[in-house]
């Protein structure tokens, strides 16, 4: 019986939060920072290891994670675009990891259950890209199998991984989930206020 593939989690948390105007990874939510929520959910899942890519305010954010079983990597080129962080995370992997699940550092409501559902779908399908869908619209986090890593390394710095969705369109596995959290990230103050109002009702 073949061994189940191991999936690594890569948390993308290097951005400068330019639309927010302050470092959103540090914003308080449920008694800790947003980034800590993201990382703790990842650690509670079936991911075999968790890598956190930092850039803006890296020293402060790394201090928050010092007692967690994660690998922290600093991306000095984070201002050039998200693909630099994708690759900074991938460079920390070894051949043990059959795939990488990219989690956004501003999505604190992505539960271990959502993560595990994506991993399970990959285990049975071995699709090169596995992504969650809620009410017909795709969201995050997205899993990329090892066969895509070389292509990710070739991406233009400011484009992220979107070109691969076109390239692998016929082989993408879309996994239905019953949670709109896959669409909720924190880009603006309005997004943050909505998060607190709807998911932390007793916040001041």
Word description of this protein:
With 204 residues, the protein is α/β, with parallel strands linked by helices. The chain has a single domain, classed as Spore Coat Polysaccharide Biosynthesis Protein SpsA, Chain A. The protein is built from 7 helices and 10 strands. A hairpin with a 2-residue loop joins strand 2 (28-29) and strand 3 (32-33). The protein is globular and about 40 Å long.
Termini separation comes to: 53 Å
- Rg computed from alpha carbons, rounded to a whole number of angstroms: 16 Å
Name of the CATH class: Alpha Beta
CATH superfamily: Spore Coat Polysaccharide Biosynthesis Protein SpsA, Chain A
CATH architecture: Alpha-Beta Complex
The total number of structural domains is 1
In a few lines, what is going on in this structure?
The protein has helices at 34-43, 58-64, 82-90, 112-125, 149-153, 162-167, 189-199; strands at residues 6-13, 28-29, 32-33, 49-54, 71-74, 97-104, 129-134, 137-138, 142-145, 172-176. The chain is α/β, with parallel strands linked by helices and 204 residues long. The model has no long low-confidence stretch (mean pLDDT 93).
List keywords for this structure.
single chain; 204 residues; Spore Coat Polysaccharide Biosynthesis Protein SpsA, Chain A; two-stranded antiparallel sheet; 7 helices; globular
Helices and strands in order, then pairings?
Layout: E1 6-13, E2 28-29, E3 32-33, H1 34-43, E4 49-54, H2 58-64, E5 71-74, H3 82-90, E6 97-104, H4 112-125, E7 129-134, E8 137-138, E9 142-145, H5 149-153, H6 162-167, E10 172-176, H7 189-199
Parallel strand pairs: 1-4, 1-6, 4-5, 7-10
Antiparallel strand pairs: 2-3, 6-9, 7-8, 7-9
């Amino acid at each position: 019986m073949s061994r189940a593939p191991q999936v690594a989690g890569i948390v993308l948390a290097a951005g400068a939060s330019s639309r927010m105007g302050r470092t959103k990874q540090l914003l308080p939510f449920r008694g800790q920072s947003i980034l800590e929520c993201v990382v703790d959910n990842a650690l509670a899942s079936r991911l075999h290891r968790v890598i956190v890519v930092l850039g803006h305010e890296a020293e402060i954010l790394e201090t928050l994670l010092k007692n967690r079983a994660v690998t922290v990597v600093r991306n000095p080129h984070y201002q050039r675009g998200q693909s630099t962080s994708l690759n900074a995370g991938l460079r920390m992997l070894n051949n043990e990891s059959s795939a990488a699940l990219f989690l956004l550092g501003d999505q604190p409501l992505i539960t271990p259950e959502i993560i595990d559902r994506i991993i399970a779908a990959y285990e049975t399908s071995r699709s090169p890209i596995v992504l969650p869908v809620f009410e017909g619209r795709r969201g995050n986090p997205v899993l990329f199998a090892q066969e895509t890593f070389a292509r990710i390394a070739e991406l233009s710095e400011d484009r992220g991984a979107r070109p691969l969705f076109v390239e692998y369109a016929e082989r993408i596995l879309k996994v239905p989930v019953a949670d709109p959290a896959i669409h909720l990230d924190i880009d603006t103050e309005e997004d943050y206020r909505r998060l607190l109002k709807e998911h932390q009702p007793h916040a001041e």
